[in-house]
């Protein structure tokens, strides 16, 4: 049985600096990070393990350039279902898991039920293989899409400035999750 758990977790300025350094370069060694944030490599290692065990650090990835890999088209698709809840939503979400071209899928409130970020090799691939597959998913009422012409900003770095305190060295954050 899943239960919602809540616990307090203390982050100090070193933790915040460590998280910022890892977001910039997760491939950096503990020694390199330690030199940046003024901690020993062993202290960096212990703090990373602690942040991983709490789920603050979920995983490490290599970020790739889609265009250099032949995925030159990016689109945002706005999907509306015939029914806004129940089995249709769950079925849609299961199908989306099997579409590797869908980079992100968000359930939203507003004009659409879902917003998807999609990559494809070209417009034909987007139309033929991705959007056509989406329209065949049971319960999809409409799909509206926009082609990205130029990316102004794309980031994977979360803002951390809300965690730090002016003049303070420690900040309590509330961790929530299912157990």
TrEMBL record:
Residue span, HTH asnC-type domain: 11-72
Keywords: DNA-binding, Transcription, Transcription regulation
BP term (GO), one: response to amino acid
Keyword Transcription included in the entry's annotation: yes
GO molecular function, one term: sequence-specific DNA binding
Any matching Pfam family: AsnC_trans_reg
SMART domains: HTH_ASNC
Cellular component annotations (GO), alphabetically ordered: cytosol
InterPro entries found in the cross-reference section: AsnC-type_HTH_dom, Dimeric_a/b-barrel, Tscrpt_reg_AsnC-like, Tscrpt_reg_AsnC/Lrp_C, WH-like_DNA-bd_sf, WH_DNA-bd_sf
PANTHER family cross-referenced by the UniProt entry: LEUCINE-RESPONSIVE REGULATORY PROTEIN (PTHR30154), TRANSCRIPTIONAL REGULATOR AZLB (PTHR30154:SF34)
Record protein name field: AsnC family transcriptional regulator
């Amino acid at each position: 049985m899943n239960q919602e758990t809540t616990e307090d977790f203390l982050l100090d300025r070193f933790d915040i600096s460590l998280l910022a350094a890892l977001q910039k370069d997760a491939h950096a060694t503990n020694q390199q990070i330690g030199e940046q944030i003024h901690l020993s490599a062993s202290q960096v290692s212990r703090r990373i393990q602690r942040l991983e065990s709490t789920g603050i650090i979920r995983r490490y990835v290599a970020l790739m350039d889609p265009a250099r890999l032949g995925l030159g088209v990016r689109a945002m698709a706005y999907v509306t279902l015939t029914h806004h809840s129940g089995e249709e939503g769950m079925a849609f979400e299961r199908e989306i898991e099997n579409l590797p071209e869908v980079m992100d899928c968000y359930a939203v409130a507003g004009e659409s039920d879902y917003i998807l970020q999609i990559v494809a090799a070209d417009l034909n691939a987007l139309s033929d293989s991705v959007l056509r597959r989406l329209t065949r998913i049971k319960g999809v009422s409409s799909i509206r899409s926009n082609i990205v012409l130029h990316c102004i900003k794309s980031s994977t770095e979360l803002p951390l400035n809300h965690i730090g305190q002016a003049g303070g060295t420690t900040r309590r954050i509330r961790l929530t999750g299912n157990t």
